[in-house]
Design brief:
Layout lengths: L1 H39 L7 H23 L7 H5 L2 H33 L3 E2 L4 E2 L1 H36 L1
Antiparallel strand pairs: 1-2
Helix pairs in contact: 1-2, 2-5, 4-5
Subunit structure: The complex comprises the extracytoplasmic solute receptor protein and the two transmembrane proteins.
Pfam family, one: DctQ
Organism: Nitratireductor pacificus pht-3B
Length: about 170
């Protein structure tokens, strides 16, 4: 079972990486096309800025989940490294709980916004505005999963520290 979960996790990380690359490529292409149409053909693409914004939101939150998974978010850990091991573990657990609480609140808020925005239509793309906020919801869900994993890792580390002292 653990191997299956690890494989699923690795596949999900690869999927997010590929989605981010494709979204960045699409956003770059759309913005380049917008420049060509606006300045050379004198006929701007009415949907390009909305699509670029939609892709930016998705990239932001999917990228945040990937950064959290890789532990590449900005952190000031100088003080934490100076703490004794037991206090260091406690700090990791509290930090993981705070991050999890924030990500749960973010995801819940995104769910409420998606529900509210599903009736609204983006004028340029002619699709529901919920698609834009769905990036926050899905990215938030991934952030929650990664946060739970980090909390479990911190708790296991705390348990290992307790066993070493016994």
């Amino acid at each position: 079972m653990a191997q299956l979960l690890l494989t699923a996790r690795q596949l999900l990380v690869k999927l997010v990486q590929w989605l981010l690359m494709l979204m960045l490529l699409a956003m770059t292409g759309v913005m380049f096309a917008q420049i060509i149409w606006r300045y050379l053909l004198q006929s701007p693409l009415v949907w390009s800025e909305e699509l670029a914004l939609l892709l930016m939101v998705w990239m932001t939150f999917l990228g945040s989940a990937l950064m959290l998974e890789r532990k590449e978010h900005v952190a000031i850990d100088l003080l934490v490294e100076w703490l004794p091991p037991a206090l260091n573990r406690a700090t990791q657990i509290v930090g993981a709980l705070v991050v999890l609480a924030f990500n749960l609140a973010l995801t819940y808020g995104a769910l409420l916004i998606v529900e509210t925005a599903k009736e609204s239509i983006m004028p340029g793309l002619k699709i529901s505005s919920a698609w834009q906020y769905m990036g926050v919801l899905i990215g938030g869900g991934l952030l929650v999963l990664v946060s739970i994993e980090a909390l479990l890792r911190a708790l296991r580390g705390a348990a290992a520290t307790q066993e070493k002292r016994s």
